[in-house]
Amino acid sequence: EELLERAQERLQDAQRIARIGSWTRNFETGESFWSREAKVVLGIDDPAKDLSHYESLVHPDDQDRVTEAIAAAYFQGGSYQCDHRVVCDNGSERYIRLAGQVFLGKGSSPVHETGTVQDITDRKLAELALQRSEARMRSILSAAPYPILIVELTEEYPVLFANESAYALFGISQEQTPEELKSREFWSDRDDRENFIESVLTESRVFETEMVMKSRDNKTFWASLTGSRLEFGGINSVFISIMDITDRKRIQQELERLATTDPLTGVFNRRSFFDTAYKEVRRAVRYSQPLAILMLDIDNFKAVNDNYGHQFGDTVLRRFAELVKSSLREEDLLGRVGGEEFCALLVSSQERGAYLVAERIRKRWMEEVFELQGSQVSFSVSIGIAIMLDETESMEDIMERADVGLYTAKRSGRNCVIVHNGDAHTSKQGKN
Question: What predicted TM-score, i.e. pTM, was given to this entire model?
Answer without folding.
Answer: 0.55
